[in-house]
Design goal:
This protein is mainly alpha-helical and 321 residues long. It folds into two domains: 4-177 and 289-318, HUPs (Rossmann fold, 3-Layer(aba) Sandwich); 197-283, Tyrosyl-Transfer RNA Synthetase (Orthogonal Bundle). It has twelve helices and five strands. The strands form two sheets. It has a three-stranded parallel beta sheet. The longest helix is centred in the C-terminal third of the chain and has 29 residues, at 289-317. The structure holds adenosine-5'-tetraphosphate.
């Protein structure tokens, strides 16, 4: 079995990315799994090239520092020739209607000055990522299931039109890990690309900054310290963060506290301790260019070799290459 998951370096990795995904990949990932930095996906909206490059390195360091085996990671753009070639084959297998139907495209295109064609076609790039690596399972949140469905349709269509070459992947719903909300606005998901960072704890923030952000978290004026996500979302978010750090349920941890100040101190302490080893190791790796580059090159080589047979066969069957 091969599970494939990625993190897009559209900004610095945050606590939500870590507790909701990266930490689980490190703890539960099997020997066949692959985790990658999807930097090509960071180009679908306006971006800064040198920032993207820096963030891709940083994200790789975070994956490794979180404990993901170095044999399981790679950076997507290191395979840009392979994945680009496969994307073209799959674009020529995909209809315009299928691409334009994607809900995420409609949502993300709204309000953009220039809608990049890449925003429309990036689910096909995602299909290429999945099919190139012969992934069998793709853990996704609700918002990405439609994209995995597209990858399945394209794999089946290509296989039946040109010959069996692709493994048909399946989407697996990520277990309901906490969906962390922004500390300043608990109705909004904690996100890398949020303009105002006051409510986003980045995994590489220094401990004082983490404490400040958590201390200023929006709660509410009620004085009931209970886990009630619909009526007290800010409080529930803090309880979920603490629960995820200490391995208990949010309702259970709520019983330990009688005031918000006391709770915020405990959340800050737990988050700082949870992130301390990750931060130390990631900063070491970012400084140690040689080691990080070597791991990156080896990861790219392995991923390239893994996909080589599929790509060659697919090109041949499609009458090119
Ligand atoms: N707030 C969150 N709580 C729990 N899990 C989260 N993830 C993202 N935000 C939260 C999970 O992190 C993994 C990697 O995410 P991604 O890089 O694919 O980007 P995303 O889901 O679009 O997350 P962001 O941080 O909000 O980025 P932007 O601002 O660029 O959209 C995924 O498994 C995701 O579920």
């Amino acid at each position: 079995m091969t599970r494939l998951s990625g993190v897009t370096p559209s900004g610095h990795a945050h606590l939500g990315n870590y507790l909701g995904a990266i930490r689980r990949w490190a703890r539960e990932g099997g020997p066949g799994d692959l985790y990658f930095v999807s930097d090509l996906h960071g180009m679908t909206i306006s971006y800064n090239p040198s920032r993207l490059r820096k963030l891709a390195r940083e994200s790789l360091a975070v994956l490794l520092a979180a404990g993901i085996d170095q044999e399981r990671v790679f950076v997507q753009s290191d395979l840009v020739r392979e994945v680009g070639a496969l994307t073209w084959l799959l674009e020529c297998t995909c209809s315009y209607g299928e691409a334009a139907r994607m809900t995420q495209f409609k949502q993300k295109a709204e309000g953009q000055g220039m809608v990049r064609l890449g925003l429309l076609t990036y689910p096909v790039l995602m299909a290429a990522d999945i099919l190139l690596q012969n992934a069998t399972e793709v853990p996704v949140g609700q918002d990405q299931t439609q994209h995995v469905e597209l990858a399945r349709s394209l794999a089946r269509r290509f296989n039946s039109t040109y010959g069996e070459v692709f493994t048909v992947p399946r989407a697996v719903m990520a277990p309901t890990a906490a969906r962390l909300m922004d500390l300043s606005d608990p109705t909004r998901k904690m996100s890398k690309s949020t303009q105002d960072n006051a409510g986003v704890v980045f995994v590489l923030d220094d401990p004082d900054l983490v404490r400040r952000k958590i201390t200023r978290a929006v709660t509410d004026t009620e004085d009931r310290l209970e886990y009630r996500p619909s009526s007290q979302p800010g409080l529930a978010n803090l309880l979920e963060i603490l629960a995820a750090c200490v391995g208990r349920s949010p309702a259970e941890v709520a019983d330990d506290f009688s005031g918000y100040g006391e709770l915020k101190t405990a959340v800050a302490d737990a988050v700082i301790e949870e992130l301390r080893p990750l931060r130390t190791r990631a900063l070491e790796l970012i400084d140690d260019q040689h080691t990080l580059d070597k791991i990156r090159e080896a990861g790219a080589e392995r991923a390239r070799e893994r996909g080589a047979h599929t790509l060659t066969a697919a090109l041949r069957m499609a009458g090119v290459g």
